[in-house]
Amino acid sequence: MPLLLLGAGACAMDVADLAADLPQFEVTGFVVSVPPFQPGDSLLGLPIHWVDDIGQYADSHLVACAIVTTRRYALIERIGGMGFRFATIIHPSARVSRAASVGEGSIVSSGVQIATHTQIGRHVFVNRGALIGHHNKIGEYSTISPGANLAGYVETGRRVWIGLGANILEKRTIGECAVVGAGALVMKDVQARTKVMGVPAVVIEKDIDGL
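Above: the chain sequence. Below: its structure as tokens.
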């Protein structure tokens, strides 16, 4: 199936590489909504389209979002409003329990482990080597960075960012739009719109809008 990727940065190149290992997808181009891209620009030999110019592909192409910021939700919702359907990309090297679920538009990268009875929401990006334990609930538009380790019964709100190599203990809740910094050890619940860092993790910023 022809596949357009939202974004044209390093992450988009990474997702294009992931999709190349899945025979059901063929990446045919990239889509941007911010400058400095110009008509005729390309990435990996494929065209970069301006978002307003892709309506003609709504019936023939799937879309996946290759942008890691949790603020990607606005572009995804815009694309959905244009009638596009979203691909769910799960790399063959990932292990997803048969009793787990992965929502529409989510990307599960190489080496990821998703344990039993875990629910991955819509448009979640689970990056390389992340470990997600049993009975987790990951809110839509969240990003789980490479090497993050979530124990059992962890629940996140929508648009949560879990940083590189962060560790979250069992039965912890991470509120909407919260950010867990790289390498943090989360031993307590994290309130919505709060950024935590450190070992153990402590609050360093409040009233944020994701990352």
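The chain has a mean pLDDT of 97.
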